[in-house]
Amino acid sequence: xxAMLPAREPATVPTPPTGWPIGSYxxxxxxxxxxxxxxDQEFPVxxxxxxxxxxxxxxxxxxxxxxxxxxAGGAASGAWFGLFVGxxxxxxxTGPLPIAILTGLITGVGFGMAFAAAGYASMRGRxxxxxxxxxxxxxxxVLCEPRTAEKGRDLLARLAMGxxxxx
Length: 167
Fold this sequence. Notes:
By secondary structure, this protein is α+β, with helices and mostly antiparallel strands.
């Protein structure tokens, strides 16, 4: 006879949002403001979902990279790590605390600069800039469960007619 194994819980998988649209906004801030208004009106906001439509990855260039900037950044990040290691060595080691901190700091700066230089050199000029990346949407829709969608739509319409920027 075969032993029965206990049933496994299904893995949580991403599911598309459900509900009826009660508002559409150009920015996430506007959508947030709309949901905040609903909450202020004691609307059951657990029925609401903000959905970013037409997602885009936006990379904003923040600076041109030079050897000086790369080495300075490596020295700074290495200094923080070295300071942390130096403090640990000073607290749990047998030597004097200031010597341990200074040793960790100097070693961290050296290794930070070396690793930053190796990474930058390996790019061979293909990416001479620093940037930040964000995931944004073309618009933000506010969806609501059908049982409360009409009330939510009415509240947001009143907010829009009240002169607020949320529409």
